[in-house]
């Protein structure tokens, strides 16, 4: 990715290519501000959110925002 900012929106298996791009950005000398919106029906559907959140804490240029249709898990 190039430009001033990167915005990514993904859910389910669509997260895999976004995660790969984030890891590639992390290897660069300079990273653009990057915003990842991870979506799912329920919080339990947000794949690997813990790891993504840790990546965001460790990399100030990355913001991860979870988005769900429902606030509670179905069980």
So how many helices? 2
> What is the radius of gyration computed over CA atoms, rounded to a whole number of angstroms?
13 Å
Helix and strand succession? EHEHE
What portion of the residues fall into strands of 2 or more residues?
A: 25-35%
CATH architecture: 3-Layer(aba) Sandwich
Distance between the termini: 39 Å
Give the overall shape.
elongated
Tell me the name of the CATH class: Alpha Beta
Low-confidence blocks of residues: none
Would you identify the CATH H-level superfamily? Nucleotide-binding domain of ferredoxin-NADP reductase (FNR) module
| Overall helicity | 25-40%
**What is the fold named in CATH at topology level?**
Rossmann fold
